[in-house]
Automatic annotation (TrEMBL):
This is Ribonuclease G. It comes from the Bacteria. The chain crosses the membrane at residues 34-54, 87-109. Keywords: Membrane, Transmembrane, Transmembrane helix.
Length: 115
């Protein structure tokens, strides 16, 4: 193990990170932690993205060279804000997609002479 992985993680650093969850691979490369690259494995990534969200801050703290917790939290807040916005946008698009499909199916069923 290298010396960075032995760094003690302060309690303030622990917690959910939307950036690590939504942008897992880019976030991992940007924070010099490469465990999020496991998200490239199909099906396994469905579980691993949640692990990235939960453990991301700890991994980034251990691999980073931040001078204090406040600086670290400021950097991660930017990632987290972007990830949360991306999550909300994705949910909106998924809902709109299903509404569109439901409307298209309803139109098809109502206009099909066999029904």
């Amino acid at each position: 193990m290298d010396e960075l992985s032995n760094k003690v993680v302060p309690q303030e650093v622990k917690g959910w990170n939307w950036g690590a969850f939504m942008y897992n691979i880019m976030w991992g490369i940007g924070n010099k932690t490469y465990l999020p690259l496991l998200c490239l494995i199909p099906l396994f990534n469905l579980v691993w993205i949640f692990i990235c969200g939960f453990k991301g801050n700890e991994w980034a703290w251990q691999k980073g060279d931040y001078k204090d917790v406040e600086t670290f939290l400021a950097v991660q807040k930017t990632w987290s804000r972007a990830g949360l916005v991306q999550f909300i946008v994705a949910i909106i698009f998924i809902v709109l997609y299903f509404l569109f499909i439901a409307a298209a199916l309803a139109t098809f069923v109502n206009n099909y002479p066999g029904y």
